[in-house]
């Protein structure tokens, strides 16, 4: 009996030591990952500075800033769509597109909300969704009016930013609330990645030479086939006459800020080093030579 008890105690002791060692190794691994992430973030920041410096000194971009030519911008973006580089032990993949190819979600206002409602209704999303979006933009509230919300979004998420919708992650929280609150899963039918961009109120212009099909569909109130046909002719537009709009489409598009030349780039960087990687996205103003709206992802 004594031997059995001694053996049992030994086994329990071994198990405790094994668990402690396993937990310790897990902590070491997590600490190593944290150190590696911090190192990757530092190196990514340095590479970002190098890329910004290259953009600021680029003769092609200098020429673009001076020419105000939609043709020149189109050629630049066609030739720089995907640039693989190798710097020291790191692979860097750069890609460029127009920063104004998507519709800023914060352009939603009383003037164009019917077009937003019609677009989402086409994909079987209830009108309550647009009302929730409006509640998340302070401009849709009357002066000194703050807390009279029709939904319970801010009861569930009191920490949520309320001046404007700041990011895709911000919108994901709103979308999840809508799905759970109304039992509506039809938001999965919307390609939000192609439809919306996110920034402060002043940057609302859509460059019609790069507008995504989903954007055309929303701002014109047209069919997906018509939107795709307009998108396939990207880069060829100089004026509204080139679009061959119907009278109703002209009335609809007038409710949004549009242009045929917007000198802003959306720059994506993917940095790969051994088993680590990071992604950086930012917008670049060709004329002022400044980057903004930086997003880091490890």
How would you describe what is shown here?
With 298 residues, the chain is an alpha/beta fold. The chain folds into two domains: 2-99 and 262-297, no CATH class; 103-203 and 225-255, no CATH class. It has helices spanning 2-57, 59-67, 70-79, 113-122, 128-135, 153-156, 168-182, 192-195, 213-220, 224-232, 247-253, and strands at 83-87, 90-98, 103-104, 196-197, 206-207, 258-259, 264-273, 276-285, 290-297. Helix 4 (113-122) packs across helix 9 (213-220) and helix 9 crosses helix 10. It is globular and about 55 Å long. The N and C termini lie far apart (57 Å). The model has no long low-confidence stretch (mean pLDDT 85).
Q: State the helicity in percent bands.
A: 40-55%
**SS-based class:** alpha/beta
Average pLDDT reading: 85
Strand order of the largest sheet: 1-2-7-8-9
Count the strands?
A: 9
Low-pLDDT parts are none
DSSP helical segment count: 11
Order of helices and strands: HHHEEEHHHHHEEHHHEEEE
Query: What's the Cα radius of gyration?
Result: 25 Å
Features:
two-stranded parallel ribbon; single chain; 9 strands; 11 helices; alpha/beta; five-stranded antiparallel beta sheet; globular; 298 residues
